[in-house]
Amino acid sequence: MGFIEAVLLTIVTAATPLLIAALGELVTERSGVLNLGVEGMMIMGAIAGFAFALMSGNPYVGVIAGVGFGALFSLLFAFLTVTLVTNQVATGLALTILGLGISGLWGEAFVGVPGVKLLPIEIPLLSEIPLIGKLLFAQDIIFYCSIVLLFGVSCFLFKSRMGLTLRAVGDNHTSAHALGISVSRVRYLAVMFGGACSGLAGAYMSLVYTTQWIENMTAGRGWIALALVVFASWRPNRVLIGAYLFGAVGIAQLHIQALGFKIPSQFLSALPYLATIIVLVIISRNRRLTIINTPASLGKGFVPDR
């Protein structure tokens, strides 16, 4: 029982940043913007969260800083792609490279320095329930935020007027503009929300997942979050399944090594990314499902007078 509980806890820890970042990117893509800069925003949230928590001695300050830096970094992307109508793919890739570079430069002074851990919130009695007690009722605030985000994003997209507006912009920005909807404003807000979520996911990495700064500590999780959105067919509830599935694959490498299986560590480290490729190949075979669920204006710039 103790082993199973430990495995489940590590899966939750691995899946939480993927879930948060993927939900943010899902909202961004639903508005018609393809942001490949998730990895860069995550790493900026990670270094900001670590640095501000360390300097203030308060991990919650680090959480706020991570969210803020992620949102601010996304503003640069929004300005370039929404206002200047640059190529979204190239801009997102450039933003990731920029984020990795800035975080490496800023974080050089924090290498090897012990960080401040965001402690779990234990709910009396409920946290003592066998197996599920620690799993559901003794987690940190960011885990609970991820669950609230899941339900909030789902309700927002499919049960609110603003969500309908967002999806209208993503499906046909020209028609949305003709109806008097400010396409630029909707996309700016969606991109900022995605950036804030990526920053929160990054802060989780440096305040919960590992309480120290390691250069490039996100290790491609931003790319997995992007793949999760496609895996989920732009549906929030499916993102939850995908995040925990990929989290389990990522954690499997540790337990396989612990059990003594003679499998090259390099292969085990590549498992999450191999799983990502396999899932995307399987999904791409069902072209009809992909076309139906993909926002029609995804990745397309919009200029009102054209």
What is shown here, in short?
The chain has helices spanning 2-30, 38-56, 59-83, 88-107, 132-137, 141-159, 161-171, 173-178, 183-209, 221-231, 236-258, 265-285, 287-293, and strands at 121-122, 138-139. It is mostly helical and 306 residues long.
Layout of helices and strands:
Layout: H1 2-30, H2 38-56, H3 59-83, H4 88-107, E1 121-122, H5 132-137, E2 138-139, H6 141-159, H7 161-171, H8 173-178, H9 183-209, H10 221-231, H11 236-258, H12 265-285, H13 287-293
Antiparallel strand pairs: 1-2
Helix pairs in contact: 1-6, 1-9, 1-10, 1-11, 2-3, 2-4, 2-9, 2-10, 3-4, 3-9, 6-7, 10-11, 10-12, 11-12
Protein traits:
single chain, 306 residues, mainly alpha, ABC transporter involved in vitamin B12 uptake, BtuC, two-stranded antiparallel sheet, 13 helices, 2 strands, globular
Structure, described:
- It is a single chain.
- The protein starts with a helix and ends in a 13-residue tail after the last helix.
- The chain has a two-stranded antiparallel sheet with strand order 1-2.
- The protein is globular and about 60 Å long.
- The model has no long low-confidence stretch (mean pLDDT 90).
- Helix content is 73%, strand content 1%.
- The chain has one domain: ABC transporter involved in vitamin B12 uptake, BtuC.
- The protein has 306 residues and is mainly α.
- The protein has 13 helices and two strands.
